[in-house]
């Protein structure tokens, strides 16, 4: 049996081929709805003879897959075959061909056979073809988007970038993207791996000598706001992880001989507090509440670097949507079971952004050398009830099991009121004025792409 799908890319065939050979390219193409773990690699990327060993989890079942690059012709094609896995046969050819003066066509061709012979094919082929179409629709969208950005900044210097929180849900995806764009990435980590920079905000230690030579620092580290019930002790930990951690990093960067040209620091739309139906743009004043005070103190520490660093960017991020982690991943099981619904009365505004737009906007701000606060939210906010209805519709499930406010307060304490029941109709005015174009401005489209629907 055969499957084929094509996409036109905004670059030459050789450039498209070389993008697939870069570090991070394979991870960029992994669909977010699949739980994929890379167990080991041998060889170098798509060099002939290179292998990759994977674990794929679907429906609670783990499957091992070992693939090998069996053939390669530079700039023209490469082929991977299944050494071990769920198929009786799998040969996947990625071919690249020029199309006009500035485009190329990527064709993915797969020859496959299902186990069980004719009966296995009869029972499973329709489902396999549907899944292949789903997967390669996503892969081609990511490939085209990433190569469009590569083309836009092809003549710009490749950067040496440090990311704190680079092993977390959002930071790890940003790191993979930056590497696939040709940049060098190191992670500021409490448990540093090879090439990382060590630090421990709780003890105030950081490897200052290793901070030399970075062109940009992206600071995302901080304890998860929603990982437990808020009390005085937990709020103190949240404050220290964000404010004290930022202060430690900023002071260390102020002492290096060659300072970065850009410092990008996380913040949140909690800066505006509960603003009801009022549209919260970047020019709005500080709101009220613990989250607002936390965001202000967090940003104030980052702003100290304005004396040393040309571009200081503060990211006031909303709810980041991706099936691999964060809020959406926690919601999926109850919604798939038909137990999803709005939070509280459901009329509160929920500022959100697709993960790919979060990554794209951070990259845009970095490469365009912007400065200032930016609301990293989609231009079309929704209420909690609208979000629940849309997610239910995408999953083809009812979504009427609302969670009463008292239950949320009982489980999460003060975070329920500030993080889930408060209303913030944030709008990305500064981001739009900077020239960023959203890929997924509508909630339905954002959910469909990350869930493969």
Q: Could you describe the 3D structure shown?
A:
36% of the residues lie in helices and 27% in strands. It is an alpha/beta fold and 453 residues long. The protein folds into 2 domains: 2-152, START domain (Alpha-D-Glucose-1,6-Bisphosphate, Chain A, domain 4); 160-451, 3-Layer(aba) Sandwich (Rossmann fold). The strands form 5 sheets. The chain has an 8-stranded mixed beta sheet, with helices on both faces. The protein has a 7-stranded antiparallel beta sheet with strand order 1-7-6-5-4-3-2. Helix 5 (232-253) links the parallel strand 12 and strand 13. Helix 9 (384-394) packs across helix 13. The longest helix is centred in the N-terminal third of the chain and has 36 residues, at 117-152. The mean pLDDT is 91.
Provide a brief overview of the structure.
The chain is α/β, with parallel strands linked by helices.
For the structure shown, list the relevant keywords.
13 helices, alpha/beta, 21 strands, Rossmann fold, eight-stranded mixed beta sheet, Alpha-D-Glucose-1,6-Bisphosphate, Chain A, domain 4, 453 residues
Strand order of the largest sheet: 11-10-9-8-12-13-15-19
Number of E-state strands: 21
Question: Largest sheet, described in full?
Answer: 8 strands, mixed
The 3D shape can be described as: globular
What is the count of structural domains?
Answer: 2
Q: How far from one another are the termini?
A: 24 Å
The number of helices is: 13
The H-level CATH homologous superfamily of the largest domain, spelled out, is NAD(P)-binding Rossmann-like Domain
Q: Could you estimate the helical fraction of the residues in percent?
A: 25-40%
CATH architecture assignment of the largest domain: 3-Layer(aba) Sandwich
What oligomerization state is this entry in? Answer: single chain
Beta content: 25-35%
Ranges where pLDDT stays below 50 over 5 or more residues in a row are none
Radius of gyration: 23 Å
Q: What is the arithmetic mean of pLDDT?
A: 91
Structural class: alpha/beta
CATH fold-type name of the largest domain: Rossmann fold
- What CATH first level of the largest domain would be assigned? Alpha Beta
